[in-house]
Amino acid sequence: MTPTAVPLPPARPTPAQPGSGVRAIARIRATRVGDTTVLPTLAGDGPFDLRRARPHGNQARVCILGAMSAPLGGDRLRIEATAEEGAHLHITTAAATLALRGPTTAHATYDVHLTVAEHASLHWLPQPLISAARSNLRQSCTIDLAPTARFLLCEQTVLGRSGEPPGRLTTRLTVHRDGRPLLDQQTSYGPQAPGWDGPAIAAGHRAIGQTLIIDPALNQHPPHARLIGDDPATGHAVLTPLTGPAVLITALAPDTLQLGRLLQAAYPMP
Prior knowledge:
Elements: E1 23-33, E2 36-44, E3 48-56, E4 59-66, E5 76-83, E6 88-93, E7 97-99, E8 108-116, E9 121-125, E10 129-131, E11 136-145, E12 150-159, E13 168-177, E14 180-189, E15 207-214, E16 226-228, E17 236-242, E18 246-253, H1 256-266
Parallel strand pairs: 1-5, 4-6, 5-8, 6-9, 7-10, 8-11, 9-12, 10-12, 11-13
Antiparallel strand pairs: 1-2, 3-4, 12-15, 13-14, 15-18, 16-17, 17-18
């Protein structure tokens, strides 16, 4: 038999300066045409390989594939996505994002900027982010919404791989609706982050997640605050109404399996 050649993964491009890391950006733009949503802009470089997925009704769907290991120390990564007026966009990733140290101790950045216009919707549902030992990542997600826009975010973070401590991780979520601040939160984990493993933040758990729902329909049926989960050892989730109209669900669990169950119990994913 003739052996089948197995393609090697793409090599990381050589940075312009040693230790400076990779600079890469992905851009997605969704536009309404008649009763459907089309994607006139779908472009990515570096680790971002953007693929059109099968649409769901009038919602366009995009899956982000990792074309190389990222983010590593010194990388500067950015995703920009816009749902224009009346468009409906769903974005996910094909696999978990693994933050690693890489050849330099410099921090990496992973910035996501999402814009949703009038009567449009956007779902941002990536696979979990894993903060590996000795990594150093600063992640941000900035969201700008029109008054009639609808938005859904679900993110999960794993603090360290099996049997190892996490790296240094700072995450920030900033949301503006109709030009006004709705939510701005920042959390740090790992070495040099005071109290990150205490009861005020991770409480000894290694899987952390949150779901954010922003929908004008919540004005008609505002939810009530509630706690999900009976046993602290297996995790808890709390549903918190926000002025917006919005709902924020935050969950802690020992692993992603239990974390997903808690988030799903609080708000079933579409």
